[in-house]
Amino acid sequence: MAQNGGKTPNTAFMTFCHRELIHAQWKILLDDDFLEAWKHGIVVTCCDGIQRRFYPRIFTHSGDYPEKCVCCHQVLPHA
Amino acid sequence: MFVSVADLSTKYTPLPITSDLVTNRRSGSQVLLRRRRRCGSTAKGLDCMHLLMIPPPSPTISHPSHLWFVVNFSSESLNAEAKPGQAIPPELPTEVDDTHLTMMERRPWTHRVIRRLPWRYRDMLPQAGQPLATNSQLQNPMPTQELSIATASQSQNPQTENPLAGYPYVVESTGSGLRSIGTSLYIAANRIRQCFRTPRNKFGLYREYTSEAPPSHDPEENATLQDICDEVNSNDHPDLSPESYYPYPNFNAFRLGDWYWNGGPQKSQASFKDLLDIVGDPQFSPDNIRDVQWDKVNHALAHDLDWIDDDEAKQTGWEKMPITILVPFQRRCNADSNTNASPQEYTVGNFYHRSLVSVIREKLSNPDHVEHFHYEPYAFKWQPGSSPDSVDVYGEFYSSKAFIDAHEALQNSPPEPECRLSRHIVALMLYSDSTHLTSFGDATLWPIYLYFGNESKYRRCKPSCHLGNHVAYLQKVGKSVLCCLW
User: Fold this and answer.
1) Distance in angstroms (rounded) separating the CA atoms of residues B192 and B215
2) Of the candidates A12, A19, B396, B486, which lies 20 to 30 Å from B164 by C-alpha distance?
3) What percentage of chain B carries pLDDT values higher than 70?
4) Could you tell me if B27 and B37 are in contact, meaning their C-beta atoms sit under 8 angstroms apart?
5) What is the pLDDT of residue B64?
6) Which residues 384-443 of B are in CB contact (within 8 Å) with A?
7) By the CB < 8 Å criterion, does B360 face chain A?
8) Mind listing the pLDDT tens digit for each residue in B66-91?
9) How far apart are CA B453 and CA B403, in angstroms?
């Protein structure tokens, strides 16, 4: 604090950092495995013995702060 | 056998269900009317009642007016199965010696009224939808090729003969998806979708699947009221293994440690009672705590923060990854500010997370959850009584338009090469909110939870079902940490 003359980062700067951080974490969550499953599905042998191919789709995301919004359409290509 | 008044009026000449019935009995015919005094005796008043029809005594008598009818107004008869051989008194007792009865019991049985609640006070318990079919029926091969041709030619007339007449659902050749996307596309891909409809339940609700084949899995087949009600089962809390109490060696030591650290900084009566409860518990054994090295335990509590590095934690799929972001940075006070006026890397901390695909795989392989997992969406509709139109019912996610549209888009997309497996949507519903860990202090966590829209909302909201999945713990940007950059 002493190094910057007692000034604290302004709101725009903090918003930027919040957004960068949340996007960096979501980039880790939506990894290559997930993108592959999104496009081509994952084959799972279900408990009834039937093999099915599952495609994950994100329908809702409830969270706070609009600046932390992750836009799936930019990150994920459509199948 | 029960028949309704409506059936009677269509099949037979309408019977004069008024005083004529009584007249018939008096005149020697075999029709008996048991009637409530306050209820109207017209046919209109009999709409909600059931008639007990008994075969005529002689097969030669064919006119319906010679059948025996008992118009039964009691509440039991509305739901009870009728027995063909139900005893019908041949004659009404005219003079009975009832002097041994009380005054209340002396009323003639014909005038006795069985009291019951008015309709507006009666309640019906929720009921699951009608089941789809038995497994043996579902495994029958579907004549897809023939259906595709039949569907194309019969699309204007859904009432024509239907190749799935043996199935217990109503099959219509024209589903909504068929109309919206076009028949030619389906025929080209040899993928004709049918409209499978379950029978209506007693509320008039039914499900409507649009798919190539009947659903291979019916999650609502075994659904009971217990599954969706809020009642908490005492067996929902399984016994924990000794490893769960780490760093405490056993349950009693854990309870004592919990009392010491979480019981408040000052002694109080309530705290003393808590201690007495622990020590007075029949499961408490002094041997469990005699040799506990409390200093080591407390040290482990304070410093053993890298729990995620344990091999056991890695087996559960949790991973740790440092997070680095670029922040705009300019050293204003420095003379050579231009050289440093570039974004600087700033490592916030470790990001704990699980792989989404591993969570999905674990979910789909869990035998406890898969029973209620909806692989296919359906349109949930309501068609009350004899109404020709149905009304869409909104409630569950797997009956929503978004799910149905996504499912249709997936079915219309080209399949994987040489893959004939059925394709399904896994609906991910993410939720994140920062949470305080302590009543005082600033210890917080910011977890991301993952729910599956293929599960019923009633089960998702029931904590004992354990349907929420921890996916990640988000890191935050702190002002004080950022100030170090300057």
Assistant:
1) 15
2) B396
3) 55
4) no
5) 42
6) 397, 402-403, 406, 410, 413, 416, 419, 421-434
7) yes
8) 333 333 333 343 343 444 444 445 55
9) 9
User: Is A14–B217 a contact, with Cβ atoms under 8 angstroms apart?
Assistant: no
Of the pLDDT bands very low, low, confident and very high (cuts 50, 70, 90), residue A34 is very high
Show residues of chain A in contact with B424, CB under 8 Å. 52-55
For residue A71, list chain B residues with Cβ-Cβ distance below 8 A.
Answer: none
ipTM of the prediction: 0.82
In A, minimum Cα distance to B350 occurs at A25
3-state helix, strand, coil in chain B (%, to 5): 35, 15, 50
Q: How do residues B378-389 score in pLDDT, each as one tens digit?
A: 999 999 888 889
CA gap B93, B486 in Å, rounded: 106
B contact residues 162-181, partner A, Cβ 8 Å cutoff: none
pLDDT at B118 over 90: no
Q: Which of B324, B403, B471 sits opposite A29 (nearest CB)?
A: B471
CB B309 within 8 A of CB B266: no
- Contacts B398 to A, Cβ<8 Å: none
**What size, in residues, is chain A?**
79
Question: Per-residue pLDDT averaged across B297-312, rounded?
Answer: 68
Distance of CA B429 to CAs A20, B249, B271, B400, B450, Å? 23, 38, 41, 14, 6
Is the CB of B97 inside 8 Å of chain A's CB atoms?
Answer: no
Q: What is the rounded average pLDDT of the residues B268-286? A: 89
Side-chain-facing half-sphere of B16: CA atoms under 13 Å: 8
pLDDT > 60? residue B334: no
- Using an 8 Å Cβ cutoff, are B369 and B363 in contact? yes
Distance (Å) from the C-alpha of residue A61 to the closest C-alpha of chain B?
5
